[in-house]
Design a protein that fits this description.
207 residues; mainly beta; 10-stranded mixed β-sheet; 1 helix; 7% helix; globular
Length: 207
């Protein structure tokens, strides 16, 4: 979409139907030192019924770099079986803000099976290690319950302007999360805007 010497803004779109049963998507991201990479989804992702599919993301953010990724809904349809795994490695002074929205089922569906994991580390060790297992056909109390949408904004590598109800990590970072039955009911858009503005300010990139 745009770029200069230290900043790139790109859009990601599937060239065909993704994820079909048995698909294996692997994404590798390398953000150079002092650079800012902003990624936005076009159209989101739908996991269709069939054999187990996977969506694997690995990202390295160089010293003083910043990754901003606004993910659109990741929908797990009835009969789908998906493993979704992300791994971020931050070098000195690096940071990231990620928006992820996980949805069990399309309208009128209960959704399939999802295993979603995210690990973020830097030279000092783990910042965030999280794993969610959910199945729309067997909802579990204490996991999602009757909810089918998990929306989250995650900031790592710095302290964002968190709200009182947000989870602040022991290491620099925080998470804002909202559970609901509809994607349009999420209140996290302003959180994303505020945390991204803070991250860009850290990176000395004009907002």
């Amino acid at each position: 979409i745009s770029r200069d010497a230290v900043r790139a803004h790109i859009a990601v779109a599937a060239a065909g139907m993704v994820l079909l049963g048995g698909d294996d998507v692997q994404i590798e991201i390398d953000v150079g030192p002092g650079c800012t990479l902003e990624i936005e989804d076009v159209g989101g992702t739908v996991a269709y019924p069939g054999a187990r599919s996977s969506w694997l993301l690995g990202a390295r953010i160089g010293a003083g770099g910043t990754l901003l990724w606004h993910g659109l809904p990741f929908v797990v349809t009835d009969g789908a079986d998906v493993v979704r795994r992300g791994s971020l490695t931050l070098e000195s002074g690096a940071g990231a803000v990620i928006r992820e929205t996980l949805v069990l089922g399309r309208h009128g569906e209960r959704g399939g099976r999802l295993v979603s994991a995210l690990t973020v580390v830097d030279a000092g060790g783990p910042i965030l290690v999280e794993r969610l297992e959910a199945d729309g056909t067997e909802p579990e109390p204490g996991v999602l319950g009757s909810n089918r949408v998990v929306d989250a904004v995650i900031a790592v590598g710095f302290r964002p302007p968190a709200r009182p109800m947000d989870l602040e990590f022991d290491r620099p970072g925080a998470m804002a999360r909202h559970l609901s039955d509809h994607t349009h009911s999420s209140p996290l858009d302003p959180v994303w805007d505020a945390w991204v503005a803070h991250a860009k300010g850290r990176a000395d990139v004009p907002v």
